[in-house]
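Purpose: get a first structural picture of the assembly so the mutagenesis plan has something to point at.
Setup: two entries, given in the order below. No constraints added.
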Amino acid sequence: MKRYGLNNVVELTRPRPRPDELPAGRRARRIVAVGGGKGGIGKSLVSANLGIALARSGYRVTLVDVDLGGANLHTCLGINQPQGTLSDVVTKGTRIESLAAPTGIENLSLVSGAMDALDAANPRAQARSRLVEQLQTLDADYLVLDLGAGTSLHTIDFFLLADHGVLVLLPEPTSVENAYRFLKAALFRRLQQTAQALGVAQLAEAALGSQGSAMRTPGEVVRSVAESNPEAAAQLERSLRDFRVKLVVNQVRSPADQSVGRAVVAAWKKFFGLDMDYLGAIAYDDSAWQTVRKRRPLLVDAGGSAAASNVTAVAEALVALDRPRSAGR
Amino acid sequence: MTVTEAPTLYDVLEVDPASSIDELRAAVDRARETFGTDSVAVYALVDEEQLGELRARLDEAAEVLLDPARRASYDRSIGRIGPATLWAEDDDEDEAPLPPVEPGPHARGATLDAEDEADELDDVDEEEAPRQQALALDVPDARGNFGRTAEREAVAPDAGDEDGRRGRSGALLSGDWAAAVPGELAARAPDPAPRPAPVERKDLEEDKAPRPAVAEADPGSERTGLPPSLGLKARPSPPATVPEPVAPEPPPPARASSNVVPERPPEHATRPRESRQRLDIAADAEFNGELLRRVRESYGLSLQQVAERTRITRIHLENVEADRYDKLPATVYLRGILVNLARELRLDPARVSKTYLLAAQRAHARGS
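Result (structure tokens, whole complex):
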């Protein structure tokens, strides 16, 4: 895996203000990244409709299409591709806030990520860090990032950057496999970045490497680092504990599918020792693909469907996570 | 650290040790649903070996904890006095440490458990620790491999109350972060099931003092777990109330064990580790059942003790040592067993599993 410059590490690990530290009034800004590794599993559909559900609840929401090579969030929303896109940030130095286009839905705007320049879909580190930096300045209650498929660095970095990394998967082996690959890649990167920022990169590296290619559990790495640097290990532990993924299971068709979400949460905890929050399942629903074909958002065109009410419930579950936390964090 | 090092069978199921039988059943169903071979949720998450280990332990948890008698003796073996336990008063008496090897007088086991009638059938070696036999769990049978069980049985659609699942998640398994960082651990509220210390260190500690036969835990403590210094593996050893008939014929000679000390050391159940007979094992040794048995015996460990320590069911261990390849589970599970066993015996896990599986393969090819 490629290395990342120290600047980016600092960038990504820099603490953002907690909600209670921000001025009263509007809710604090939250970044939500919707990913899942595999293509075609409904990431864009979930992002778009999650954005709508949040906007309808009164939050100011900006959707950002960071599927740089395959941006089509505007299509999910039934609007034309906005004039300016994220590629302007990279190539022309355009400020990101000027790109936010209205979507026809109150409180909801869209920043398109369509990048037509040949190599723009895989921005270089410098461009990536400019994107990351500017994203965080966007003024909204919720920033919803629609990630592309795969485990490319910029996809993973956006996922790690988010306050809420939402993992979408379908209850089928191909999707689950890619989802785990994505999670492990993200976890590994988080570990690398944090270890580097703490100056224990070599320790962590050694801990990771001592068992061949098998991914060791985060606990093992932390324990191993703790042997020579307990303080760094404690910080590393905190950072990795913060890797708390939010799970959405899409296209659920049977009662057995219904239980997959809980099972994934339990399995992830069992083998990696990390908590995951289950936001809920979205029923397989003809209205979902039908509305996509009509280029109308599910929540707008089929608001009464099972899938629509599931998405709304997912949004509520997400918002609930941002209510005052229980002590401890 | 692997899944098999979860402190107790309750931790494996992620339930409170005070759970009712119904709660345990629900937890077993849930675990089958989550970790069985049909579960998509574990697809490509970890390698088959880790899954195999977990499934074997879940099988064991189901076998032991769903059987009230075995659960009760298991509870005692981990120093826990369950609400339904009859022998609470006996416990003080158990505190007196026993010398490591002391047969006879302390054998009060037979009165505790009807199953112990079978003790008389035990071979002499097993009699060395009669008191312990009465208390720890027996592992009579490897029926129902977890994966296969889950495959066979229709999974109940409602696997019970989901909220209960988190149970004692604070004392979880492989990746338990509390356990991972000693400082953090110490700062926490007392954990009912402290993490077992790393094997090597634990073994040393354990060996320093004569091992109390039963309750290592502090008598006054809440007794929901084990003292950290002893951990899981310091449990009293095995009962073998229903010993599996050990094959009378000696296992085939080890292929590469010419330099192995030939005489069989006495199999005293609690012989300290230091007494290991010198056993030179060639770097290119091929491990078969015979060699593994010799190594085990050189540590003075009984089959039952190893079963206790590794959580491998005893019948599997016997079959491994007797090279009964046809009786052993599928390769993915067998590898897990071998790796675990090798760790316990401080052998190179990769070497042991590789050479043993190769021999099994050859035997299979020969059609034996």
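The first helix of chain B runs from residue 9 to 13.
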